[in-house]
Specification:
With 251 residues, the chain is an all-alpha fold. Among the domains are: 1-104; 201-240, no CATH class. Helices cover 81% and strands 0% of the residues. The chain is built from six helices and no strands. It has helices at residues 13-16, 23-34, 43-73, 78-130, 135-225, 229-240. Helix 2 (23-34) runs parallel beside helix 4 (78-130), helix 4 (78-130) runs antiparallel to helix 5 and helix 5 (135-225) crosses helix 6. It is elongated.
Amino acid sequence: MENLPVITEGLNPVALFVEGGIDEILSKVESEVLSVVPNTETAAGRKDIASLAHMVAKSKVALDNMGKEFVAGKKAELKKVDAQRKKSRDFLDELKANVRQPLTDFEDAEKSRLQAIAHAREMEIAHEEALTWDDLFTREAAIKLEEAKIAKQESERIENERIEKIKKAAEENAKNEAKREAEQKENARIAEIARKQEAEEARQADVAHRERFHSEANRFIRGILGTTEEQATAIIDAISCGAVPHISIKY
């Protein structure tokens, strides 16, 4: 993840900053970052997500700077270039947010978890202090502590359900993509079979067509010249293969 590609290398701004010219690069960035399954369970996985988001941000800046330099030399094309710059900024900002969303969700959940732990600890301290008071204050502190524990457990349950839903959604997307690719391959295979079948039918039809022409010509030659069927066939074959000057068969 450390050696992220610089997408501006080798790009031609004249071809890039036209209507639709930026789409392939944006799709390439999107494909690269979305090909990595986000993993917030490990520090390395969270670092990879941050690196992907950083790459998207660098790509946005690189494309935007290239656009600025191009506009400086192409004032007449300023509106088109600015439109593409805005498109790349908006697209990559949204892509960055989408790519970083798992990390953002993790950070929010972690913040909530730490807050719940801190709150529980505060309640524990309050409970310890309440031990010096009479039974009424002790019971109230115990009730609050129990409520805090219940709230923490509920928060953890909700967070676990959310993480599980994210995992299931990612698995479902992967299954759907695999199914789509399999269907595309099967459709291509069926189309190829149909194409070969059509070609073979066309070839057979052409052969039958030529045989009918040859048969009619054979009967005509035998009727005119009184040749045998073999001799007439030899004459027709010689004409069809171009061996007889100035004479050809039009099928």
